[in-house]
Structure formats: C-alpha cells, structure tokens
Design goal:
By secondary structure, the protein is α+β, with helices and mostly antiparallel strands. 49% of the residues lie in helices and 11% in strands. The protein has 3 domains: 95 residues, no CATH class; 66 residues, no CATH class; 95 residues, Roll (Chitinase A, domain 3). The chain contains 12 helices and 6 strands. The chain has a 4-stranded antiparallel β-sheet, with helices on both faces. It has a two-stranded antiparallel ribbon with strand order 1-2. The relative contact order is 0.11.
Length: 316
Amino acid sequence: FARQRELIRYAMRPEECPLVDPEFLGPPPADPPPGGPPPPSEPGGETVAGLPDVVAEMDGDVITRDEFLARAVEWWGRETLEEMVLRRILVKASRRWAVVLSDKDLDDRTEVEIRAREAEIKSKYGVSLEEYLKSFSKTPDQFRAEVRGNESFQRQVLIESMLAYAWLTEPRVEIAHIVVRDRDKAEDLRRKLKEGADFATIAAAESDDEFSAAKGGKLPAFISGMSMREPAFEDAAFALQNPGDLSQVVKTDRGWHILRLTERRPAKPQTYEALRPEIRKLRMDRNSLDVFMRRLRADYAKGLRYHAPALEPKLR
C-alpha cells in the first residue's frame, strides 16, 4: 500500500520544499531525456507517466492503469492532495520567515524523539530500545537515520520551530476570564467588577469554565491565532492595553465572556537565526502544533481553491 500511495505523490519532489538544508536532499534528480519520461528516483519508483496500460495481470485478468489510478485517487487522493497543499503552505511560511532547518536542529530534535520512543518502549514492553529493534533486525543507528530522514518528522520539527519563533517574537497576552451563558448575568458581573469586586473571587464562584475558575479565571498566555478560541475572543484580548483592564462582554459559542488583562508583552522583532539556539530549547505540545498549522493555513492559503470536489478535505 505504501508503494502504491507513492505513485500518486509523484508531482512533489523533496527539493521543492526548503524544509532542510540542501545537503540533506542529496544530488538533484537527473534531467529526463528529451521526449522521454523522468527517470525514477529509486528502483521501482515509477511515475504516473511511466505506468504501462496494464499494471498487473493474473490468469488473464488484468488491472489497467486507469483502474489503478481511479482506485488510488478514491482511497488516497484526498489525503495526498492535502499533504501537497500543506507542503506548499510550509514553503511559503518558511520563506517568509527565513526558516531553514540546520543539521544540528534535526540532530537535536532526533535525539529528543528517540529518547521519547525509548521511554515508551520501556514502559509498554519492558525492554530497551536496542532489544526491541533486534526483533526487527534493525540497529539503533539505522533507526536513528530512519527517524531523522522521515519527511513527516522533518515537517513537525519545522512547524515546531516556526511556532517557537512566533512565540518568542510576536505580541503575547495573558488574561483571566469569566464566562457565563446569560448576557444579562455577564453584564451584571462586569458592573460589579467595575465597582471593585475581586475578579478571582467572582470567577471561582460564577464562571462556567471550571478549569480556569479554579485558578481565578487565569488562562495560559497566547499569541495571535493560538488562544484556541474564536476570533472575537482574541480580538477583545489583544485590544486590552494595561494590566487590570476589563473588556466589554464578548460573545462566543461558549457563552458571554468578561476578559481582564493580566500581562501584555510587546513584539520583540529578531531574526530566526539570532534566536535559533533558544528556539531549539522550546518544545510545543501536539495540540498547539495543530492549532498553529490552522493559523498558517489561514495566513498562507487564502487563495486556495479546490477544483475536484471529491478531493476537498472534509474538515478545514
């Protein structure tokens, strides 16, 4: 299945995306002979143009190229197209921010990944990574090379690096909030706060957000596009200028919010290269990476149009 899937990903070559320094990509593919199909990049790495009319035959029963491609698109087309869109988004974003992963970036992140997998294997199976790999006839060095060279892994490191860069350079706010379902109640609570009532006390007693209510309404600090809440919520948060400022009541699908600014950090413009050592030290959780990828999509795929409805992603 993996090989078949690669056949419909023929259009994207690694050198089109600056995820890593050029040295990691190896020599460029040879130019195709005039009038001929491009050569495969590895044994058996056929492109669609190079497929014969009949791709398989068994006892006189044939599978044609058209049958194969139709089924391949049906099974993997949507996922493959989405990967190609994602690749182009990352190309645009990484060029915009001058982000290119270095040898050390990948080496450091590979070691972190291997340690995490080693701990997981020890916890699940009670054996060392080396013992586990022996059952698959692999050495630790082979495993390390596979992890480091995996495109999905490199892509994750790139997204994590860009998020870390944004976190270190973009304006950041920390707020506390109270959310209730009824607007009149929200307005009444805001009036009490303006009259001097303690925000943390009211949040603990009245807010429908149990997680933040237990902390006096406090939420983790966030940058633009990363609050995991609706735009109206973020807009209200970033509109607050001074610690202690209160927002008007704000409507989201969770109810009516009152926001109080706890801390505001201004933008700190610096180049990616200058911050690279600090960026390497930051680790972002999976949920934050997913949210950041949605932000990148919103920022860099505004002109995206799908011309094949069957391949359009179900959720965007």
